[in-house]
Amino acid sequence: MTFADSSSHLFHISFILAAAVYMFCLAYKYSRKYSVVKGNLKIHPDIKSNILKSRGLFEETLAKAPIGIALLDADYRCFWNNDSLVEFLGASQKNLSGELLEDWIPLKYRKKFYSEIKKKTVKPFEIMFTNELWGIVTISTVRKNQKSLGYFIVQIADITDKHLMEEKLTHQAIHDSLTGLPNKLLFYDRLQHAIEKNKRKNQGLAVLFCDIDHFKDINDAMGHLVGDELLLIAADRIRNSLRTNDTVARFGGDEFVILIENLDFQEEALEIANKVIKEVKKPIALHDEEIFVTTSIGIFNVDQDTISADEVLKFADSAMYVAKEAGRDQIAIYDHKQEGVVLANLKIGNDLHRALKNKEFELLYQPIMDLKTGNITGVEALLYWNHPEKGVVGPSEFIHLAEETDLIIPIGNWVLEEAIRAKAEISKKLNLDLTMSVNLSFRQLANENTTNVILDFVKEYEINPNEILLEITESSFVQDSVHVRAVMEKLIRHNCKFAIDDFGTGYSSFNYLKRFSAEILKIDTSFTKHICDTSEDLAIVAAIINLGMALNMKIVAEGIETEEQLAQLLTLGCNYGQGYLFSRAISKQTLHEILATSSRNWKILEENVSNIDN
Q1: Neighbours of 346 (CB within 10 A)
Q2: Which of 3, 36, 48, 470 has the smallest set of CB atoms within 10 Å of its CB?
Q3: Distance between CA atoms of 509 and 518, rounded to whole angstroms?
Q4: Is 71 helix (H, G, I), strand (E, B) or coil?
């Protein structure tokens, strides 16, 4: 039955019941009237009997009616009701006599109810009641005469199922059936509203057009079910890369479109696109297979002159195709002023060149703690970018782009020299033997000069090589294991030490751990963060610690933020760690002042950092 048929059917029931109510009122009125007459007027017994029978029949009919019915007097007080009304309202007693109408009606609907009830002809209207049920209300008026009001007949039919079905169909009409994301229709509407809002307030607006690379090949090779699962995971990763108020929609197939509002600067859209790129390319485990996918993204930054949603989507789409043609796993930006598309990597590359030339980079240092004693045993040098427009930019937002170009070599060499110089100053000025950890990218390991660069800096600044810890990721082993191993062995012969960073997020091959002579295994923040929340992460961390201990490696947990995480790591046997619980990354000057204090214990570390910064 359609909604139209349902409404028509409901109207006919209401009409019949209204007639029954009216007849009941007449029977009620006349049986009451003539039963008290004590004059000469007499009623034939058969007529009186028929009236009483009619009243009883109608009263029984209304009492068992499937919709709620009440009779109200001129003051809107109930003097009769049926059981269906009581059941619908969830009332505690069956007889509602004497109760006011407003006791049943939610506050926000009362004004409308009273305005409707005063009209000569009242059309049925809908109300959501306090128990979250929907009812359609019909009101009829019974008059004593033309001037005098008699009763109100109120009928309330339960249409909750109808409303739920309407909401479901409405949701289905504007959402993608596979991912549950908004579809093109809903996205288009939101985009058009955002464009109009941006014309008035110029609050910053961008659209990202994303396409999963080689999705058709995966779909054809592994089947549509696997393809659908992949899309669900990709949709979830894209959604988790965004801010709370951003909108991501699926346009069909492997296309996702993102609406970003309230941008402080245009480059913010590029930062979000980079997060999406990074999240989507993480390995996906499906049906005993590990799948790697990438995405190509086109960006259009909307200005106040933009006319329509169609225009925005066309420009973002064209930028996305340029990103694909550039080799996929790329970001391209449509330049509205130049009426052309610029690859984001080219733009960020230019910015990084300028940053290196203008000395916009800075090293900050995060202490590494002995978890048992609470003392600082070393520091990790972390690269930050003092961007002239964005402010301080963290390494996760630009290092991967530097690695895709040759810029990582000069930037990496600068980091090595600054970190080794800082280590030399700590040793000489403070007479402390702390380990300085420095990150090396695969491109640096692959570069034939890197070994000599490191050894030259060690010699120039007169430090012990075994106090330099070079951190490399698992992926470095896989890309060129023979060359990486040769570089590592040469540096180890000169007493340099290695750590495997972010262990567990890449290939996690036991074979690589056995073949490469690393002394330290670092547990990635993503596992430490949820160690007290999920049994899975707890089990992974426990396994990494046990593995490291079996191979005589030291274990360092990254991203420790709470006392609970610290306690759990100590219980598992992890003896070293770093994170905001102890200290954020701090400047070289602040580090020197902290290390110069009488105590290097983490319990007073953050207090000292705060005092110095203030």
Answers
A1: 13
A2: 36
A3: 14
A4: strand
Q: What is the DSSP string of 100-117?
A: BGGGTS-HHHHHHHHHHH
Amino acid at 214: H
What single string gives the DSSP state of each residue in 168-231? HHHHHHHB-TTT--B-HHHHHHHHHHHHHHHHHH---EEEEEEEETTHHHHHHHH-HHHHHHHH
Interval 461-506: pLDDT, tens: 999 999 999 998 876 665 556 777 788 888 999 999 999 887 766 5
Q: What is the mean pLDDT of residues 375-389?
A: 91
CA torsion through residues 473, 478, 483, 488, sign? positive
For residue 546, the tally of other CB atoms under 10 A from its CB is: 13
3-state helix, strand, coil in the chain (%, to 5): 50, 20, 30
Residue 464 dihedral angles phi and psi, to the nearest 5° = -80, 125
Quote the mean pLDDT of the chain: 81
Are 573 and 542 in contact by the 8 Å Cβ rule? The answer is no
Residue 296: pLDDT band (50, 70, 90) is very high
Distance CA 261, CA 243 (A): 10
Token pair of 94 as six digits = 């069956």
Other CB atoms within a 10 A radius of the CB of residue 321 amount to: 15
Q: Is 289 exposed, middle or buried (0-12, 13-18, 19+ CB in 10 A)?
A: exposed
Please state the pTM of the whole predicted model.
0.51
